[in-house]
Structure formats: C-alpha cells, structure tokens
Amino acid sequence: MNTRLKEDGSSRKQILITSMLFMGLGHIVHFKQYIKGFFYALFEVLILFMLPTILRKLNDMVTLGIMKPDLPVKERDHSIFMLIDGVIVLAILFIFVVVYIISVKSALAEYKEFCIDKRLKTNKESISRALGKSFPIFGLAPSVGLILFFVVVPLIFSACVAFTNYSAPNNIPPNNTVDWVGMDNFVAMFGGEAVWTSALGRVALWTIVWAVLATATCYFGGLIMAVVLMDNKLKFAPIFRGVFILPYAVPSVVSMLVWQNLLNGSFGTVNRTLMQLGWIDKAIPWLSNEWLAKFTTILINLWAGFPYFMLLVTGTMTAISADLYEAARIDGANKFQVFKKITLPMVLYQTMPLIIMSFTHNINNFGAIFFLTGGNPVVSDSTITSAGGTDILVTWIYKLTVNLMKYSYASVLAIMIFIILAPFAIFQFRRTKSYKEGEF
Predict the structure, then answer these.
(1) Rounded to two decimals, what is the model's pTM?
(2) What are the chain's domains?
C-alpha cells in the first residue's frame, strides 16, 4: 500500500494538485501506473515541444501578417493561411485541454477506487480496466477528430472571416494583407450602408417566403396526389404513380436547366407553343420579370418536389388502420370529412419532422434557384450587390464570393443562415428518441 495516500479520502487534494502540475504525474507518483502515466505525459511533452510553433501561429492569427511590398508575392504574408493555421492550433489546444481534464479525472477516479478497495491496482489491472472503459472513446476518437478538423474548423474559419476585411480589391492576399475589423461588416449589412441593407432585407425576406411556399406547395401537392391515388376506384393508379415519380427520379440540376430553356423569353418552347396556339400575342417573361420569376420558381419546384412527399404520404397512409375508415363511413362521413378528421391529422403527426427538415433544406436549396434563374432578373441594386430578384441567401453568398470576391460579407450571410437554421436543427434533435431517453 502506498503510505503517502490515506484511505479516508483526505489525500484527494494532494492527488488533484499533482495531476494538474503535469499530465500523468498523479498516475506515476501515487498509483505507480507507469504506462498510463507515460502516455499522458508524452502527450503534454509533445505539446510543449510544439509550443514555440503554437505561439507563433497564434500571434500570426492575431496580426494576420504584415505588409511586405518589397518581397516577391510568394514570400509575402498570406493572411488567410495564417488565419486557418491559427484556427487549427486552437483546435489542437482544445484537444489538449480535454485530454488534460480526462487525465485529472482519471487520477481522482483511481483514488476513489483505492479508498474503496484499500489497495493499489497493478499495471496490468489498470491497463485492462482502462482499455475496457475507454473502448468507446477510442472508437469514437477518429470520427470526432475528423468532425473537428473537417467540419468545426472550417465553420470557425468561415465565421472569423466575417470579422475581417477580406474582400476585393484592396484586401486579397498575398498582394495585400487582411485585417480584423470587428463588427464593421455586420454594421454595414444591418444598417450602415443603405444599398447593402436594402439588398439583405429583400433577399432574406424572399428566402423565408421561398422556403415556406416551396415546402407547403410540395407537401400538400404530394399529399393530395397520394390521397387521390389511394382511392380504390381509380383505375391505373400504379401507372399514374410511376409517371409522377419521374420528376423526382431525374437529377434536379438537369430538370432545372431543361426548364430554363423551355421558359426562355426569346426562344423558349413554352412561349413559342402558346403563340402558335394563339393564346398569347407576345412572349411571357417567365424568368425576366421579378415577380413572375418568383412565381415560376415555386411552380417548377412544385413539379420537381411533390413526388417525394407523395411517396412519403403514401407509405404513411398504408399504416392507418382500415377500421378507422370503415367506422367513419358507417357514421356517414363523406370523403372530405374522412380526409380532414382521420387522414390529415395522422399523416401530419408522422411527417411533421420531415416537413421541418424540408423547410431547412429549402432555405439552402441552391440548385432550385441557381440552375433555373441564376438568381435573376437584375434589380436596382444588383450592379453593386450582385443580388438578383430571385436570389436567396445561399445563392447570394455564391455570387458574393465568385463574382465580387466579397468574402467578408458572404461570411456574415453564412452566420445569418446558421442563426436561422440552428433552432430548427436543435428542435429536430430534441425530438429524437435517443435524446429523450438519454441514449446515444
């Protein structure tokens, strides 16, 4: 027995201090767990060895480089690379802090068991127990690491860009450096510059309207078609169902590009056919009039999106007991009353989470807008902001980065989208069975 440890729990503070002084020190000094303590200590030694590089990268992240016009372009400070490196270093430090906390808690847990068992575990027992308890951690560590460096780090980097002046023409590395500007970009977008604020309000409002209408039309269009095709008196229902699935089976990019050509105001097949039939005298500006283009995008999205909900609702309706419908018919209910009182409530209950997911998807539905209208038509502020009449936030971000190289403003919009979508994602997660039962 280790005489330096007391079995009554009074040595807890001593172990806590020792474990905090150096990672793994508590395991080595107090519990003679040399292997476990060595690996903990080795991790801290590696971090200490990298400390000069870490400090330099953090300093570069703070300064984002210094202008060096006398040097060749390739040798100048690249602010964006410095920012990325700094975010990666912060992720590494985060991992270090987490492992440090785990090592301290592990030492305290060992002492708690020592107070119960009245003896120290051997190295073999310690390793066997650690491997057993830590198996889930070792199994999840690669996935967590990949998520951290390929999801979290890019998200943090994108958010950091919103607080810089990274944009053309004066702050594009490596010719020029990028500087931290604090909340200036947010101020400019949310009231500081009238043109940008007007464009943001217009695009954000249309994004919400688009998401609501695109979701509602596709859902209720699919619901109505599913109810109609489930009617036993309808002949050839499987054939109609197969035809309606075709728009969903064709890649949306192809569908949108085909419709873009069909609805072309000058030589589109739709206008030419209507003029040949004598139904119109001049071409209809399907995609060149702002309000008509918005209506057209919703209509074409309905054509492409309702088959998904039709299949979904059809599957849900098959789970509804036939006895409910039989009882309703015996009570004298007509088809509309059966639909209103039985079908609709039960289908909505089962599909509500998917409706929420579809709404969040439509907020970021890049393809339905960009490949059909390209965000056009041009409106009053499009020359300055590049935001067209049918642009939603995600297509505007694309234009800001590719066309105008306004990366800082695009990052502000990305943060705005995150703020809008995060509550829906959290709400959806809280409804899952694993969250409610506390099982992951």
Answers:
(1) 0.85
(2) 12-161 (no CATH), 185-437 (1.10.3720.10)
